[in-house]
Automatic annotation (TrEMBL):
This is DNA-binding response regulator. InterPro entries: CheY-like_superfamily, NreC/VraR/RcsB-like_REC, Sig_transdc_resp-reg_C-effctor, Sig_transdc_resp-reg_receiver, Tscrpt_reg_LuxR_C, WalR-like. It comes from Dactylosporangium sucinum. Residues 148-213 form the HTH luxR-type domain. GO terms for biological process: phosphorelay signal transduction system; regulation of DNA-templated transcription. Residues 4-120 form the Response regulatory domain.
Amino acid sequence: MTLRVLVVDDDDLMRAGLRAVLSVDDRIVVVGEASDGRQAVELTRREEPDVVLMDVRMPQLDGIGATAEIVAGGSAARILILTTFEDDDYVFGALCAGASGFLLKRTQPEQLIAAIHTVAAGESLLSPAVTRTVIDRMTRQPQPDPVAGRRLMELTPREREVLESVARGRTNGEIAELLSVEESTVKTHVKRILAKLRLRDRVQAVILAYETGLVRPGDGPRVRGDTI
């Protein structure tokens, strides 16, 4: 299966470099380039890429705003944020806008290619640093939102248990061991949770669990990365 990728960056040299990196994988085809967020939204609508490599700081419309517009427009494209900035406002803003992953531009070429395949497969690229940022940011949020909390009523007791473990940073393997089930069963539960709560990926599930008070800051084991 060929993956269609849109490259978005306001630096001409960076776009050329990314195109060169992606050209080594014959399963990836770059369907277009955009130099600002507004062009990114328009090209995503026209070209229907599978994955958008999105810069953050750009003229016209930044990467976070472009991500929000693409997601709100109902595009099936997965957004992979690629930036030089590690500021938690950028990370949190991008993930809340609907991005499926967040990588720094110093990422090795092979890791970037692997990340594209990961998010294109419907998984979220959730590194330990990014997960920690999300959870740390949630500790500074107001009290749990009772309206958001009512969404959890759609889940079965076992699904709530799985969501709680996901939010506490447990990997699928650790959840399987804790619940004495197969890892494939955990993956099925996670997919059902995302579908019922109308969430794009595991990142948004973590955010919702903290927003609703299902998990409190400081609970659970040290966070680790995982995919679903």
